[in-house]
Amino acid sequence: MTLEKFLTKAVTSWMNEEGPYSEIVLSSRIRLARNSKHHSFPTVFTEKEAADVSQKVKDSMQKAGESLELLEMKELQELQKRVLVEKHLISPNLAEDSASSAVWLSDEEDISIMVNEEDHLRIQCLYPGLQLKEGLRKANELDDAIEEHFDYAFDEQLGYLTTCPTNVGTGLRASVMMHLPGLMMTNQMNRIIPAIGQFGLVARGIYGEGSEALGNIFQISNQTTLGKSEEDIVEDLLRVVHQIIAQEKAAREALVQTSGVQLEDRVLRSYGVLRYSRIIESIEAAKCLSDVRLGIDLGYIKDVPRTILNELMILTQPGFLQQYAGGFLRPFERDLRRASLIRERLEMDDSQLKGGTDL
């Protein structure tokens, strides 16, 4: 796969597939933080050490026989890196550190291994729906393959040593991306967010720490990595996620029963905004996309596949809009292009569905 493919393909196969509980859980992510025991950690290492780590990772990947493609940050333009951030393939931190930073990506983009980010290695696996155990299994396979050729910083008592103390232990960050409009509309998220903190979990926005929950999308992830096994961390997260799923379903049912007409009106108005607007800002687009996705799940909208919303969530981000435009766009120009792109995508999908019906 070429760099251009990574940049122009808005939706990866894992995002375009249905998974368990995919009407609420968009994706599951497993990330393992690892460091070399022979080098200073990224916050204090020299450029020479950074380059050495990058080369050792490259050698390890080749010996491990993993068919991943290497993208070096120093070879990418700022806009290209922003697109990779919007697709959740690299972190904002990696995009800022370009000297010897890199990412290894699979063709399906379900595997992303970041080099010289906050830690020397960040092994990430992404799956559609609620598939944390599957993600952990694959991440552990990659971890074991790399470790055969790369000496990790490990302490018998503390576990894997990481740059940030909050990752010491397993080095595991497990997270699920959830669409929770029912809980937001019924004002229950203000109660749920502090409650899950008691279980060592945290709720963040769509792009993780410091980001907003645009479009009613939240990332639920573990905060505790020390004193528990990887399997226990995943099991604890799964238990809470299943409870949130049940509460979200109950909230949706309550909304249908008490405000069915108003809810359907809200959904169809948002659909109309997406279909006919000439100018639309990112916040309004995210809100309308959330409403339409809910409308699809509830059966108010029958001719639009749920996965199209996954695609439009990415396509309407600033980086992607400018990538398609071929250069920098001012905010107003982005709003124009965002509205145009959404209209074209919905019209294209509608045309395909009608064509399929005629056959």
From TrEMBL:
The protein's name: Protein-arginine kinase
Listed PANTHER family: ARGININE KINASE 1-RELATED (PTHR11547:SF38), ARGININE OR CREATINE KINASE (PTHR11547)
Motif (RDXXRA motif of the pArg binding pocket involved in allosteric regulation) on chain: 334-339
HAMAP family named among the record's database cross-references: Prot_Arg_kinase
Sites where the protein binds ATP: 27-31, 88, 122, 173-177, 204-209
GO molecular function per UniProt: ATP binding; creatine kinase activity; protein arginine kinase activity
Pfam families documented for this protein: ATP-gua_Ptrans
SUPFAM superfamilies: Glutamine synthetase/guanido kinase
Statement: the UniProt record of this protein carries the keyword Cytoplasm: no
